[in-house]
Amino acid sequence: MQFEISKDLILELQQHIVHKRDQDLERLLHDMHHADIAEILDELDFNEATYIFKVLDSDKTAEILLELEDDLRENILSRLSAKEIAEELDELDTNDAADIIAELSNNLKAEVISELDDLEHAKDIIDLLRYDEDTAGGLMGKELVKVNENWNVLTCVKEMRAQAENVSRVHSIYVVDDQNRLKGRLSLKDLLTTSTKTQIADIYIKKVTFVNVDAEDVEVARIMQKYDLEAIPVVDAMGRLVGRITIDDIIDVIREEADKDYQLAAGISQDVEADDSIIELSKARLPWLVLALLGGFITVRVLGLFEGAMVEHGNLFFFTPLIAAMAGNVGVQSSAIIVQGLANNTLSGSLFNRLIKEISLSLLNGAILSSILFLGSYFLLGEPAVLGVVICIALVAVIIIASLIGTFIPLLLHKVGVDPALATGPFITTSNDICGILIYFSIARMILGF
Amino acid sequence: MQFEISKDLILELQQHIVHKRDQDLERLLHDMHHADIAEILDELDFNEATYIFKVLDSDKTAEILLELEDDLRENILSRLSAKEIAEELDELDTNDAADIIAELSNNLKAEVISELDDLEHAKDIIDLLRYDEDTAGGLMGKELVKVNENWNVLTCVKEMRAQAENVSRVHSIYVVDDQNRLKGRLSLKDLLTTSTKTQIADIYIKKVTFVNVDAEDVEVARIMQKYDLEAIPVVDAMGRLVGRITIDDIIDVIREEADKDYQLAAGISQDVEADDSIIELSKARLPWLVLALLGGFITVRVLGLFEGAMVEHGNLFFFTPLIAAMAGNVGVQSSAIIVQGLANNTLSGSLFNRLIKEISLSLLNGAILSSILFLGSYFLLGEPAVLGVVICIALVAVIIIASLIGTFIPLLLHKVGVDPALATGPFITTSNDICGILIYFSIARMILGF
Q1: Touching check for B305 and chain A: CB below 8 Å?
Q2: Which Gene Ontology CC terms are recorded (chains A, B) (predicted)?
Q3: Rounded Cα gap, residues B74 and B95, in angstroms
Q4: pLDDT at A384
């Protein structure tokens, strides 16, 4: 099953908006999933989107708010009063509400919080605002079902029913002691299949994977993936249960992390999207281009060192882009494999073994590529055989050096605590351009003597 | 909480293996999570890993099997008899068991299936083997809890208890009619909070998001993410409930998809890891390097066209790697943003607007980079001002063309149904190298006249 926004639907909505036919709008959107409505609003202009937003009920709009693109959400929030925003937040889970409040200005924040209806909810939200967004505390929500180890199954089911009213999805049932310290978890299955008089202390599972409230988000993601968890309890420094993180929030972390590595490999240093403003896009792209430009200056200088070759061996200069391109590509390949290996925790073996492996691989690839290069330069481009030999030897050397740089720079960065993904993309291509050209002309000078 | 494999632990295990102290091994690993044990086995050699594997109980080893690296799993399976493999599979969920069977040779497959203990389980596994691994059918499992719309809450709870025995995690309770056609779902909350005499038909939720059994895995991932689902029911062409897909299997799809885009951007055409064999790594990397090499031949030819400039304007050749690098980097940036926009479904607006935007962005970046380039070439490199002007004009032109190529090639590929990620990395850098150098020298010739 598939939801597709049709042009007809958009047109119909726009007509209803123009003629202020609110009931028709409501009827049209009534059975739609909030994620679908958000997709529609993102297609409309800000005024149209806000009009529809105000027509719909707050139990629906609250969820829609979460799904909107950032700029539209910001725009809509700016047109709502503190009281209206508070009404939206009353409908949301604590972590989602806290995320939205965190986007507001400081003045508005306080005002919105004071307008929240449900005091318990407000207290939970304020508590969540304390944590960094990229920690377990920033990801967790307060909605959870917990039972006391001293209860029996009957009390437990009764208490759970009450708690479940406020929890949209029951992931796990956590067991705590009288001090709210996390003791373990209860399987729903055991609860369903045990007599009602059984003590919780007798049936709960004492092993439970948890994270500390200040654990990093990527660490939480790693643990939840490794142990296949759909929710994980969060404890404070005293071991007290303070919240839980669900897998849907972790999927966002996983995707953002993968997107970030990909963008860095492509030379984009901020999280930008195609639809961001030109200034934002420029800010994300310029730093890497400036780096490449500065590297380019060095290549100009390096080539200048070999100016003497121009008279007799001018053809050598025709091959510099080819050599630079091969060095760049090999370097990016090597670095990408290492960066992914580090990200997915699949690197093993010693540095020395890795060195031997990269050199063997480079010799294999270099031999094949050199053969093609020699044949191409001799038959296709009509270059003299001696030039072909020079270029082939240079190519093998360049491939070895480029793959070593591509392998060991990310490993080094990782070792000193810098994100190794920084070393894929422009950084590696630029340094390999420089090294590649230097090696190429040095070998040419040794063989041809100029 | 963190699990770290210590060298001491590995040494202790190895000592126990050498002296065949099976009980000590069991004691040491008894309380460990299967994912942790798998991590340990991956650190040992094949013989040691197999030894430990055979010491442990099959309820533990079955889960371990799933978590092992491919080559170790293959090795261990090759040392087990059909009966032993069947014992492992009896412990696993249907989809995991089917995944392992799918890796076996055809002969062994039949033998293992015939050795399965639980006939119902065997039937489910055989059913799952029919589906392509990258479809909903290939991802789904048979373990689910379903109730008939004609039951009441009491019958429902009773039946659920029985079904729950075979289901390790209850995600959703699906409601079917007498023909097993999916009608809706039941919220656990409603079930917990409704009187036992209520009819299911009166309380179940009629709206349920499902996928067809032959839906593509990435489509399933998109739907589950969009609607924040932790499990999704799978139906056949008749609308009958045939299985369910859980979010943990979808996380793998999301990660594989992100990894694949990343590898393509880096010029790696197969799913490889740093620890794969040299031959596999070479096979994944060579095609792109050959492509870059062939593109290199063209750049050699293009440069040859401008040989006449060498006598009077030899310095122009020093700047070719710089121009090529800028073209390549700009192209990769543009293509990466488009590829991610397509993958995350966040591209909107017309092609014409995108064209205007890319040109504006290029003019902005081009102006800034040209200023740096002019200053650098005049003061730093001591080139004549006229050469600086030539290079700056060329740079702006190259940036515009490169960003247009980077933007529209992925869009075009996507339009004709080819994976746009193919167009990031080497393909874009190579074509931009060629175009960039051609533009650069053409502009130089126009201004300098050679």
Answers
A1: no
A2: plasma membrane
A3: 18
A4: 86
